[in-house]
Amino acid sequence: MIKFENVSMEYSNGNAALSDVSLQIDDGEFVFLVGHSGAGKTTLTKLLICEERVSSGRLEVNGFNLEKIRSGKIPKLRRTMGVVFQDFKLFDKMTVYENVAFAMRVVGAKPSLIKKRVPFFLDVVGLGHKSDSFPDQLSGGEKQRVAFARALVNNPDTIIADEPTGNVDTDLTEGIMELLVKINKLGKTVIVVTHDMNIIQQYKKRVIRIENGTVVSDKIGGDFLE
Q1: What residue spans define the domains of the chain?
Q2: Can you tell me the distance from the alpha carbon of 10 to that of 180, in angstroms, rounded to the nearest whole number?
């Protein structure tokens, strides 16, 4: 569960990025997080993975109290989440298999577990046949799927996808969204940060809209105008 209670966050220069945000995302939910550039979406997601700290209020993420969390526990928090970045962040000199396996090696997973889980999640995203390929041999959509496999491989509770359709062709958007729905059906909480109003309208999930650092709308469906 993710729970914001009157959360505010100010940068060191005094600029308020979030102001008195209260919301709850239950385990297994699928949520779109929307808002114009500078609205506070990026800050909110940075708070979730503890790249930024709460200035006031209470924030609970997957059993961790983030306004009081010690630095030594942050890696444990991050293991409960998988983040898919807009620019994929794949290692060019690693194969698809090695890129996904890397996420397990950095948390100390046993080689036997890596050999079991990496092929499984490559199959989940439909790339089992590309395990020996390098990123420069993949399409944009395939790179995105590798990023999803890497985010999933440590069995996180929550997946955060930052503009997952932003760097792929329109024809690939539906496939990526269906993959996110599939991930959600595995029992994962899915948070999609997006500007793509078409997919919001199509999938009719919960939509949290942020403007000027505050939540201005929180409802099911995308039947509102941007």
Answers
A1: 32-38+79-220
A2: 32
